[in-house]
Every structure is written in C-alpha cells, then in structure tokens.
Amino acid sequence: AMALCLKQVFNKDKTFRPRKKFEPGTQRFELYKKAQASLKSGLDLKAVVQLPPGESINDWIAVHVVDFFNRINLIYGTMSEFCTERSCPIMSGGLRYEYRWQDDSKYKKPTKLSAPQYMCMLMDWIEMLINNEDVFPTRIGVPFPKQFQQVCTKILTRLFRVFVHVYIHHFDSIISMGAEAHVNTCYKHFYYFIREFSLIDHRELEPL
Length: 208
Hints:
By secondary structure, the protein is mostly helical. Helices cover 55% and strands 2% of the residues.
C-alpha cells in the first residue's frame, strides 16, 4: 500500500497536473503569473515576496501555498528513491528533531512514522486542503474562511519540515543530481515568504 501511495504522490503526470487553483482568466491566475514573472526576472527574493499594491493578502498567500506545495512536492519526488523505510525509519531532521504525524482522521495522536510515510501523508493532506473549496475558494466573490491563515501556517510549517529532512539527510543526493541551486533558490524563496508574513513560528526554523 505504501509503495502504491508513493507512486500516486510522485507520479509526475498526476501530481503536477495544473491545479484547478489557477484557472486562466481568474484573479489568482493573474497573481500567479505576476509572481512567476518577478521570480524569473532575477529580482531580489526579498522583494519578490512582498504583497503587490492593491492585492488581497489572502489571495497572495493562497497562490504561494499552492505553488510551494507543487515545487516542494517535485523536489521530494525527484529524490524519493533515496528516502526509504530503511534509510529513514523516522521522519527527522538530524538527531535533535523528530516529526510525528497527526491529522483529524487516521492519526488522532502524534504518531511516529518513517520519512516516506510522513511525506506521503503530508502531500495527500495538503492536496486535500487546497482542493477543498471551503478552505481555498476559487470562485470570484467567495470569501476565504476566518481560519485561512492558520490553515496556511500549518501547511507551510509542515512543508518546511520537508526542507529540513532533505537538507540534513539527503543533501549529498541533491548535489549528485545537480539540483543544489534549484533547491537552494526554492528554499530561500520559501524562507523570505514565511518571514515576510510571519507565517511560521521561529522555533520551527531552528533546525536549518
């Protein structure tokens, strides 16, 4: 079941289909294009993450959460063959940090999982949230829920743990695949974004 689950999560065609979040012609699609254009222009990443004048902060956060999910999912997907039950029996960031999984359905209490199991639960859980219209509304005029930024904080906090695990346990694989610059840029972009909007508790950032 685990192998099947991972296969689904990291099947490139399935996982990286264009998300329904960015329908052409919508406000969020325009925001996404704006964000991508400034990213590609090589602007300072600290400037890239700032909220464009006149835009809604929740729209801006929504666009970035979905984009970071896609990109971090892709990073982990490319190296998932190096992250196995055997190599990573615990989801950790070095000797000092261990991450346990908890959700509202199967794992009510924080539970020890291997890194690949944790990643699988995480990607499925985020995908379920960003495809839930009550949490990430896509229709014009439908307001974001009151707890939207709290949900995003939870998503981004858990995505940060993917960077922690990948950097501490699989950095040699990143280098051998020639993906170091790409991963570093993605991490920096993510880091400046969460700092700009104070979206993650600074204690969570300690491992890196």
